[in-house]
Design a protein that fits this description.
Elements: E1 16-19, E2 22-25, H1 26-48, H2 55-78, H3 81-84, H4 103-121, H5 125-150, E3 164-165, E4 180-181, H6 184-206, H7 212-229, E5 238-239, E6 242-243, H8 244-266, H9 281-292
Antiparallel strand pairs: 1-2, 3-4, 5-6
Helix pairs in contact: 1-2, 1-5, 2-4, 4-5, 5-6, 5-7, 6-7, 7-8
Length: 293
């Protein structure tokens, strides 16, 4: 089949390179690169909103570790057999660099970390989340490259010319040699990058605020994850015939859409302040005095 489809996407021959005794894993590198890209974009958008440029890194100091831990916890809870099932190795639940981060856990725990960081910096979470939202989609897009290198989480067999070649060691048992699969990593990359561009455009055009950019991010991401998840064939727990992540996408996406509408009716336009406590007249006088000195 692959000989008839010369445009098929090849899989990388390896996902690990060694620099002396130190392994450089493509999955970990993709995650780190995604985080850097997200922070760069978030910092620019936060400055455009009138925020302190140093605030982004201070908040990320809390949000990123929380997000990574939360993503791993969600992955282990929803895919426990590889770690706690027959032949599983519980210690590997800690091996984040091998792959396996659940976006829902990452967002939930990351939000807690961001809330802590925002409180410590004296800024409100909703406007910072709005600045972050497009960067999250960019980070998720880049992170999917790790799945490509690991030859994992691909979709069902396909005869489309952009089908993905998978090495025999990673192919599902019983599939004939040369079978091509839907490159779900690529679908999600394209969807997320297009979604990030759409978010930035809508934010500038509609002057969204009060967390509505972030809520729209959730709607966009879950809409894509819904149909992409239904293409995947990796083992997953199901409920009423649908994968758990499909149900999660439906419920979370609808909830975010309702919240987007409700918040928009109550708070049209941008946030009136980024700070938890707006500066008082006395604060302004002290700033002016310090500047004069």
């Amino acid at each position: 089949m692959s000989a008839l489809l010369p445009l098929a996407i090849p899989s990388p021959s390896t996902g690990v390179w060694h620099l002396g005794p130190f392994p450089l894993r493509a999955y970990a590198f993709a995650i780190l690169l995604g985080i850097v890209a997200a922070l760069w974009l978030t910092r620019r958008r936060w400055i455009e909103r009138g925020g302190d440029p140093d605030t982004t890194l201070e908040i990320a100091f809390w949000a990123v570790p929380f997000g990574i831990v939360g993503g791993r916890i969600y992955h282990v809870i929803t895919s426990p057999d590889a770690y706690f099932g027959v032949g599983g190795e519980p210690i590997r639940a800690l091996y984040i660099w091998e792959g396996g981060l659940g976006i829902w856990g990452a967002v939930a725990f990351g939000a807690v970390g961001a809330w802590i960081g925002c409180r410590r910096q004296g800024v409100r979470l909703p406007p910072w989340a709005d600045a972050l939202a497009p960067g999250l989609l960019v980070a998720q897009a880049i992170g999917r490259l790790g799945n490509w290198f690991n030859q994992e989480l691909f979709g069902s067999p396909t005869t489309l010319p952009w089908g993905l070649r998978i090495d025999a060691a990673h192919m599902p048992v019983g599939d004939p040699a040369g079978t091509l699969y839907h490159p779900t990593f690529l679908y999600e990359m394209v969807w997320n990058l297009a979604g990030a561009a759409l978010l930035i455009w809508l934010d500038r055009k509609l002057q969204l605020g009060y967390g509505r950019v972030f809520l729209l991010y959730v709607v966009i991401y879950t809409s894509g994850r819904l149909w992409i998840e239904m293409l995947r064939i990796d083992p997953a727990h199901e409920f009423l015939g649908l994968r758990i992540n499909v149900w999660t996408s439906i419920i979370v996406g609808l909830g975010a859409l309702v919240a987007f509408i409700v918040v928009g009716r109550r708070h049209p336009g941008r946030d009136t302040t980024l700070l938890l406590a707006p500066p008082t007249a006395q604060d302004d006088e002290e700033i002016a005095t310090d500047s004069a000195r």
